[in-house]
């Protein structure tokens, strides 16, 4: 029994004491007190892990008693139970009394036990923190060295120099712009097709910034409905919606002092956009179900594969929010616009795959690299990575031959009438012109998200003529 965590129940009603004892005694050693004076006597004698205190007691209120406890016995985790409409009194004293949780009557046994388990974890963390503080006083240089080492590793891993590209790549200019803006505490909007590395660039911006020693947190805004997205980002109070069983700290607060990366921001609803705009304007969030707002100090980097300017014009995205997010816009070019990067990326991805698949001796055959360089990679770096992993999984020997490449990629990279050997030879003027035309059309299709009318208008073509060229170059999307 003595090895169980000790819970002190402070309640003037014997019936309540016994009810709590029955529920808690399987996991905890339960001590009871009917008055504040009795509770103080227990605390003088026992090492208590948590205190469960009724708000209404003769002669004092639970919050006032716990203020005294915090001053004299700071270790136990303090909780209040109340069945009265005195939440405002409790909330007003939460910070001063250091109250961990406010529990309403009638309480649910399972929830109460789970809450106490959380309290004991907090107690353990407090003890570990106290020990860490002592260690810091004893050996500060050693601890600072460990922390600096971890931060330095992250900065090296996510540095701009870790973004693979050729010297003459269009990506070089993009990285230079991102490097310049990283030092300034303004919002960045990264645009580009899926798989181009928007999160990788966002991490590089964060770790190169003055906030680099603080958290970097990520949320995919297109993956959650509004209510859950708000809960994830802004936090929530217990009972704010079905399934909200406890208070939750949102990602904006978790990222305090650092950076939050909002991916797929273009997929959010107009209702959510209004709430996000307020956060950016006021620098404060309000958790779901809460009445009070909280200040946050967070840099926002957002990303989208949509054309937000078109969405603003079509009234699918708020203009004021767009300008808040796009204080500094950065566009990542797709892989088809930087074919010079393909060999370098392929080698880097192969090195990572060799390590992950424990096949250290694999290498590309020359014709395999030629095919990969000739393909336009509509899925960008992510598609290239998947293809390399597929080849490694299928390889029977150390050389990754062209036969391991997916048939659809071989057919598109090496059309009928040409051999793989032709890929490395100089093209005729006709081939070069057609390649340029194909690339121009593909880029326009990407900018306008496949809208035939807009692309035809931009390029000065008829819709019929554009469709013919799309079919000719294999760029049609079901049209």
UniProtKB/TrEMBL annotation:
Any single GO BP term: phosphorelay signal transduction system
Keyword entries, A-Z: Activator, ATP-binding, DNA-binding, Nucleotide-binding, Phosphoprotein, Transcription, Transcription regulation, Two-component regulatory system
One Pfam family named in its UniProt record: Sigma54_activat
UniProt-listed PROSITE patterns: RESPONSE_REGULATORY, SIGMA54_INTERACT_1, SIGMA54_INTERACT_2, SIGMA54_INTERACT_3, SIGMA54_INTERACT_4
Keyword Protein transport: no
Recorded superkingdom: Bacteria
Sigma-54 factor interaction domain boundaries: 164-393
Residues recorded with modification 4-aspartylphosphate: 54
GO MF, one annotated term: ATP binding
Name of the molecule in the record: Sigma-54-dependent Fis family transcriptional regulator
């Amino acid at each position: 029994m003595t090895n169980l965590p000790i819970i002190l129940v402070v309640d003037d009603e014997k019936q309540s004491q016994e009810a709590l004892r029955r529920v808690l005694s399987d996991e905890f050693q339960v001590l009871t007190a009917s008055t504040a004076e009795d509770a103080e006597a227990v605390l003088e004698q026992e090492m208590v892990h948590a205190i469960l205190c009724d708000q209404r007691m003769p002669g004092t209120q639970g919050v006032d008693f716990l203020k005294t406890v915090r001053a004299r016995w700071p270790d136990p985790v303090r909780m209040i139970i109340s069945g009265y409409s005195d939440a405002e009194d409790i909330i007003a004293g939460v910070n001063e009394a250091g109250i961990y949780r406010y529990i309403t009557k009638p309480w649910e046994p399972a929830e109460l036990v789970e809450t106490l388990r959380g309290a004991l974890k907090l107690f353990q963390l407090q003890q570990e923190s106290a020990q860490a503080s002592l260690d810091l006083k004893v050996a500060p240089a050693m601890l600072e060295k460990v922390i600096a080492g971890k931060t330095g590793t992250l900065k090296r891993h996510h540095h701009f120099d870790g973004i693979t590209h050729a010297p003459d790549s269009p990506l070089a200019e993009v990285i230079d712009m991102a490097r310049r803006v990283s030092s300034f505490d303004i919002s960045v909007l990264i645009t580009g097709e899926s798989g181009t590395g928007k999160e990788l660039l966002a991490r590089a911006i964060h770790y190169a910034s003055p906030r680099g020693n603080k958290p970097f947190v990520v949320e995919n805004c297109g993956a959650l409905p509004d209510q859950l997205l708000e809960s994830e980002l802004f936090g929530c109070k217990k009972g704010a919606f079905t399934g909200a069983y406890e208070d939750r700290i949102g990602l904006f607060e978790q990222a305090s002092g650092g950076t939050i990366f909002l991916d797929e921001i273009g997929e959010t609803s107009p209702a959510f956009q209004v709430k996000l705009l307020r956060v950016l304007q006021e620098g404060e969030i309000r958790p779901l179900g809460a009445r009070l707002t909280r200040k946050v100090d967070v840099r926002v980097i957002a990303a989208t594969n949509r054309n937000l300017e078109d969405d603003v014009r079509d009234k699918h995205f708020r203009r004021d929010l767009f300008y808040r997010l796009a204080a500094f816009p950065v566009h990542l070019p797709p892989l088809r616009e930087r074919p010079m990067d393909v060999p370098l990326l392929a080698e880097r991805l192969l090195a990572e795959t060799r390590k992950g698949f424990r096949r250290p001796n694999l290498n590309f055959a020359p014709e395999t690299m030629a095919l990969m360089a000739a393909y336009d990679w509509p899925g960008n770096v992510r598609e290239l990575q998947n293809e390399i992993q597929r080849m490694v999984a299928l390889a029977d020997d150390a050389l990754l031959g062209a036969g391991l490449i997916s048939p659809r990629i071989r057919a598109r990279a090496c059309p009928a009438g040409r051999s793989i050997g032709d890929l490395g030879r100089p093209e005729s003027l006709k081939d070069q012109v057609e390649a340029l035309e194909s690339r121009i059309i593909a880029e326009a299709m990407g900018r306008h998200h496949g809208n035939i009318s807009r692309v035809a208008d931009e390029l000065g073509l008829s819709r019929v003529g554009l469709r013919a060229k799309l079919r000719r170059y294999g760029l049609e999307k079901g049209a």
